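quick q for whoever's on today - can somebody do inverse folding on this one?? i tried earlier but teh output was garbage lol. tokens:
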């Protein structure tokens, strides 16, 4: 006689980044929109289950307990040979175990999704939050759940993402813009989209990877700039976005990693380190966190009044900031230009982690209905 099967599931959306993007790790205000598409993770438990099963990956009770006891760098080494996509699910399970949220999971996890992958729509955050919900963590406060999922991506997967993705997919509401002050995550009241407008995503055709070199280099550069400004002003701040703009403008355009380490030592970022062999765009990356925080504050006011001209100008400045710190892409530039040439489009920009992926567009409702693979 077969054992009865208990099935639970969790769902999470993706996100469209109206304004803010990589300024989240700088402690900036970001403005995010959940997508209609999302990811479902299903957990099937039977009386005979004795392991965590994800595809062809099987982790026994003993293996999970061993992994939980290891420091995070050793966890990453231990799971390195597992299929890359499973790291997100395993990471969430391990973090929830480590924090005592769940018991050792003895389930089979399966993933279904209509959310495009590797195009900068937070498909990783969606599978993380959906996994946490399927494993029973949906009883947690949504913000706490999001922070635990970010911990999994930062320390188990090894991707140095900020917090906006996980917070948006855990807390966003359809048809609204979610303001998040990423210090580390203060969530404001959702803002209704002005009548007749919508935010859509236009995939560029170039894959995005938040664990890739350009994103990591931009993040490291921002924290390098923070360290230099703090020394020059004699004043420490908690977040890059709090730095004085005049001091940031005086930063060198670029710094070699070895030269920075020799003079200033390590940064205070907890998830990245300075590579002595790389050159970093220090001024542009630091300035982006400071300037994008101010742009997001102005954009929040413009949303309240439906001021599309201001919103479009702010998105253009943000897009230029991505290019300046090395997170642009020819495909993103071409897509932005194509979008802005269409009637009813008010603004377009690189979004999320940049380097391709998806361009976010503010437009009249229906203005881009004819675009293939459009994401709402």
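ok took a stab at it. sequence:
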């Amino acid at each position: 006689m077969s054992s009865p099967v208990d099935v639970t599931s969790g769902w999470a959306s993706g996100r469209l980044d109206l304004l803010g993007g990589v300024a989240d790790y700088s402690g900036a205000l970001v403005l995010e929109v959940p997508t209609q598409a999302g990811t479902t993770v299903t957990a099937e438990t039977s009386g005979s289950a004795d392991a965590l099963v994800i595809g062809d990956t099987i982790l026994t009770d003993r293996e999970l307990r061993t992994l939980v006891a290891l420091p995070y760098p050793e966890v990453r080494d231990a799971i390195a040979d597992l299929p890359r996509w499973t790291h997100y699910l395993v990471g969430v399970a391990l973090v929830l175990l480590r924090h005592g949220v769940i018991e050792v999971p003895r389930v089979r996890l399966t993933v279904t999704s209509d959310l495009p992958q590797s195009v900068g729509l937070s498909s990783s955050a969606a599978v993380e939050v959906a996994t946490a919900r399927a494993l029973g963590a949906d009883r947690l406060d949504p913000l706490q759940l999001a922070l635990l999922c970010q911990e999994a991506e930062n320390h188990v997967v090894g991707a140095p993402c900020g917090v906006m993705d996980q917070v948006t997919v855990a807390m966003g509401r359809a048809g609204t813009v979610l303001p998040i002050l990423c210090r580390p995550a203060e969530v404001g009241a959702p803002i209704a989209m002005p009548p007749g407008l919508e935010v859509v995503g236009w995939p560029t055709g170039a894959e995005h990877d938040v664990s890739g070199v350009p994103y990591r280099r931009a993040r490291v550069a921002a924290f390098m700039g923070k360290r230099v400004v703090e020394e020059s002003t004699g004043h420490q701040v908690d977040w890059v976005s709090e730095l004085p703009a005049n001091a940031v403008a005086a930063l060198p355009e670029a710094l070699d990693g070895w030269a920075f380490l020799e003079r200033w030592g390590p940064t205070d970022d907890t998830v990245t380190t300075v590579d002595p062999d790389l050159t970093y765009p220090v001024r542009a990356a630091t300035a982006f966190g400071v300037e994008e925080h101010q742009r997001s504050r102005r954009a929040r006011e413009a949303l309240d009044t439906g001021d599309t001209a201001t919103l479009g100008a702010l998105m253009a400045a943000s897009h230029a900031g991505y290019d300046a710190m090395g997170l642009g892409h020819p495909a993103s530039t071409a897509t932005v230009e194509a979008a802005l040439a269409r009637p009813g489009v008010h603004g377009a920009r690189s979004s999320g982690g940049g380097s391709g992926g998806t361009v976010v567009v503010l437009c009249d409702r229906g203005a881009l209905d004819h675009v293939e693979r459009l994401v709402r």
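fwiw DSSP finds twelve helices and 13 strands in the chain. also The two ends are 46 Å apart (CA to CA). so keep that in mind when u check it
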